[in-house]
Design brief:
About 45% of the residues lie in helices and about 15% in strands. By secondary structure, the protein is an alpha+beta fold. The protein has one domain. The protein has a 3-stranded antiparallel beta sheet with strand order 1-5-4. Helix 2 (about 35-55) packs antiparallel against helix 6 (about 150-170). Residues about 175-180 have low confidence and may be disordered.
Amino acid sequence: MAETMRITWQVNMKEMAELDRIYQVVGKAATRKKDLFQRILPLIRAGILSHFMKESGPTGKWQALSPDYSAWKEQNFSGQSLLQLRHHLMLAATRTGAMGNITMVTNQYMEFGVDLSKIPYARVHDLGGQAGRGRRSRIPKREYLFLDTKEQNNAAQTVARFIWDENLAGRPGGGGGGTSLSSLLGV
């Protein structure tokens, strides 16, 4: 398998047992986790895209380009944002089906990221390091492949909404023997 940069959400055995128990308690077998992951994918894509648009990572704004590279980029690719010349990296990191994108969804895990055999510079831009001819250029860390706290909370609310919609909402008496969506969401 090709080397990748990715966000993986894998349900470990303890979490799998908990999800199975939730599904059994609320009436459905745990065969719909793939559908749940499909609901979360757009949130991941939107979160990563926002990092490109805001040009910021978990610790703040991305470092500006060096003066020499900035001048070259302005002359050759005028108006392009950080980490974007032809948009290959951004598209691979945000769009299912784009060249270099990895999207895998099963009932046990979801994986979304960039295939480094297609977009080899994805790692150095995310993690920082030496690059270019003779590795003479130092590329600063400009993290893009992560979910911030707000994006993680949106995913958690989507999980709760999925459990509610798929299992509890249609039950007599308002769902799940008094279980409310707000209690699932923790609000």
